[in-house]
Structures are given as C-alpha cells and as structure tokens.
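re the bet — no i am not wrong, look at it urself. input seq straight from the record:
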Amino acid sequence: MDGNVLFALGLTVLAGLATGIGSLIALFTSRTNKKFLSVSLGFSAGVMIFVALVEIFFKAKDALVAELGATNGYWMTLVGFFGGMLLIGLIDRLLPSLGNPHEVKSVEAMDEGPTPAEHARLMKMGMFTALAIGIHNFPEGIATFMSAMADPSLGIAIAIAVAIHNIPEGIAVAVPIYYATGSRKRAFKLSFLSGLAEPVGAIVAFLILMPFLSDIMFGIVFAGVAGIMVFISLDQLLPAAKEFDEAHSSIYGVVAGMMVMAASLVLFSV
C-alpha cells in the first residue's frame, strides 16, 4: 500500500508541476506554437473522454452494483458522475474570468501590456489569480491520485493527460500575473506553485478518503472522477484546442488520444 501511495502521489506531483512548463514557454518564447497546443489539447481531451467513459465509469458502476444491486448501484454511479461534473462546474463558475485558467491566452499577449485603466485592478488580482488556479487544480489532483491508486497503468495515462492539459494552463496563469506584477520571473514562480495544489489534493484525498475507502466509497469517488474528466474535456480542453486549431489538428489529436488510450488499456489488461 505504501508503495502504491508514493507512486500515485509522485504521478500527481509531476502532473501538477507541468504548469511550470507552460510558464517557461511564456517566459522564454515570443510566439505560441498553435499547432502544438491544438494537437496536445485535443490529445489530452481524447485520452480523458475515452478513459472516463470506457474505463473509469464502468469500474465505478461494477463496484457499486456489486454492493448495492443493479438498479441502486447504477443510480449511485450516475449520482457520483454528475456530482463530479457539478463540483468542477461550480469551481469554474465561481472563478472570475481573470482567474480562470481556461480563459485561453497566448504568449504574445504578454507583450501587449494592460491599459492604464486595467493596471490597478490587475495588481490587486495578481495573487488571487494564483490562488484561484490552485483551487481549480485541487479536484484534478484527487482525480489523478485516486486513479493511480486503483490502477497504476490507468494512473499513468491520466497523469500524462493532466500534465498536457496543465502546459497551456500554465501560460494562461503566467499572463495575467505578469500583467499584475510586471515580472516574468514572478509570473513563473506563482504559476509553478499553483500546480502544487494537485499533490495537495492528492494528500487530502489520502488522509480523508482512504481510511474510509470501502467498495461503495471507491465507486462513488471513481464515478465523480469520470465526471470531472469529461467536464474538463468538453468545457475546457476542446474549446481551447479549437481556438488554436489549424487544419482540423485538434480533432486529429482527439482521435489519436483515444487510440493511444484504447491500445494501452488492451495491452495492460492482458
């Protein structure tokens, strides 16, 4: 168990700190590689949608049906699934547009600078932005950790998808913080640290949920994880991928992500 916990926590840390890669892109590049972002965001969405609906949802359903019976188990799975969607939806809804990491911004926007009217407001919002990103990343950390605890190979796939998702998110975090502080280094630091909310979410999941982790609790949490992943993909990753789209590259990324995830599930299940 200790080895599984450390492995799951390590995956969550790596996925969360990928925001730092996005910050480095914002710090050291002058142009956004739109094709790369479009394909990678689409790939991440394809992985998440496929694994959530084909693998995680049915793992949750099987666990709940075995404990509660066919009808009650299925209903409880649906409650967990849509409950996860509601949780991440409320978090995104409560975040102001400036603090929402999925309000996509490009590297080029850093050179535009705020208007005089915006400067004072952005200065006040700078630190809050990093906090808001941390709050948003919290359930993603729980999703990555719980998936890795249940199935290490599944956890690796989800961690990779979340990490890819966090790269452009890191850019989106760094841009408004740079607006507020005027410092690219501070923007990198705060954006990098905001990714630590994901391993914090994993630790909270371990401390609070693991002592009570029965088959019913596992099923509900896993169903919620599936809901969170589908919501992130449909509400955030796919629209962002389309914004950077060039010659349908985003949908090619989605299909590639699904194919890779499908192949990995087959290979690791035999």
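see?? DSSP finds ten helices and no strands in the chain. told u. also The longest helix spans residues 34-68. so pay up
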